[in-house]
């Protein structure tokens, strides 16, 4: 089958960061403001995620709306996993961050041992795609835990969280342009966009009392979803036009 992952462009990173923000604010809105709670929200979103993953795995090529719908749902579920561990089971953020890092490293090691590559440019078999989505899920869980650890447990705050994670991503981008390994820098940046998006979402949505701008989770989620939908429509249009040219 054709490669099932989009090209890594500026639009890719914009949608990725916004999807992580929606994962943070959307999960908070459903769990807190709608009143579903962490457990119910997690179960509902997991069902939607399974349905989206089935669609994604059954397609024979990259379909933008299916792919990015799956990413947004993975973002919500990844956030809920961390929140459930922290809020319901009272697992320390230090412990959950370390545990997710170990699980993610094990997934990468297993993926590489079996497939001999971690490149996103070669997601051309069902097994590689399954590894890819398992890794994506735990990058979101790890990013949520690490972001909460930095901004809450360590007292970094939302403002400095956005600055710190943006700075780390900028360093990784610079390393890439200076010749660092493309696969390694991609995955490091991918992991860090999760706490960046979470910090940005909290900064925009949380009340001023807690250091945010007070826009609210519903307005923040709708604004970012609107941009995501617009960009996905644009990407779909460009993809279809490219296919017609190739044909």
How would you sum up the major sheet?
none
Number of helices: 8
How many domains comprise the coordinates?
1
* Overall shape: globular
The overall average pLDDT, rounded, is 89
* pLDDT < 50 runs, ≥5 residues: none
Helix content, binned percent: over 70%
How far apart are the first and last residues' alpha carbons, in Å? 17 Å
**Series of H and E elements:** HHHHHHHH
- Give the radius of gyration: 18 Å
Number of strands: 0
Which structural class do the helices and strands define? mainly alpha
Question: In what range is the share of β-strand residues?
Answer: under 5%
Structure characterization notes:
The protein is mostly helical and 247 residues long. The chain has one domain. Helices cover 80% and strands 0% of the residues. The chain has 8 helices and no strands. The chain has helices at residues 10-33, 37-58, 64-88, 93-115, 126-153, 157-177, 182-205, 217-246. Helix 2 packs antiparallel against helix 3 (64-88) and helix 7 packs antiparallel against helix 8 (217-246). The longest helix has 30 residues, at 217-246. The chain is globular, with a radius of gyration of 18 Å. The two termini are 17 Å apart.
């Amino acid at each position: 089958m054709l490669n099932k992952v989009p090209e890594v462009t500026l639009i890719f990173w914009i949608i990725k960061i916004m999807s992580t923000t929606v994962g943070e604010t959307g999960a908070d809105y459903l769990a807190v403001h709608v009143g579903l709670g962490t457990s119910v929200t997690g179960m509902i979103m997991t069902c939607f995620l399974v349905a989206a993953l089935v669609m994604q795995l059954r397609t024979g090529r990259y379909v933008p709306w299916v792919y990015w719908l799956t990413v947004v749902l993975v973002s919500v579920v990844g956030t809920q996993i961390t929140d459930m561990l922290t809020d319901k089971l009272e697992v320390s953020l230090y412990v959950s961050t370390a545990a997710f890092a170990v699980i993610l490293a094990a997934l990468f090691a297993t993926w590489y041992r079996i497939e001999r590559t971690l490149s996103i440019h070669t997601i051309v078999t069902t097994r590689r795609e399954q590894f890819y989505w398992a890794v994506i899920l735990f990058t979101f869980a790890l990013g949520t835990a690490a972001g909460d650890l930095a901004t809450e447990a360590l007292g970094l705050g939302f403002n400095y969280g956005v600055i710190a994670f943006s700075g780390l991503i900028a360093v990784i981008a610079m390393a890439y342009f200076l010749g660092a390994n493309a696969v390694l820098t991609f995955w490091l940046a991918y992991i860090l966009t999760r706490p960046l998006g979470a910090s940005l979402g909290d900064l925009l949505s949380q009340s001023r009392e807690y250091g945010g701008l007070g826009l609210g989770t519903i307005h923040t989620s709708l604004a970012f979803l609107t941009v995501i939908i617009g960009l996905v429509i644009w990407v779909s249009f460009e993809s279809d036009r490219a296919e017609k040219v190739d044909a």
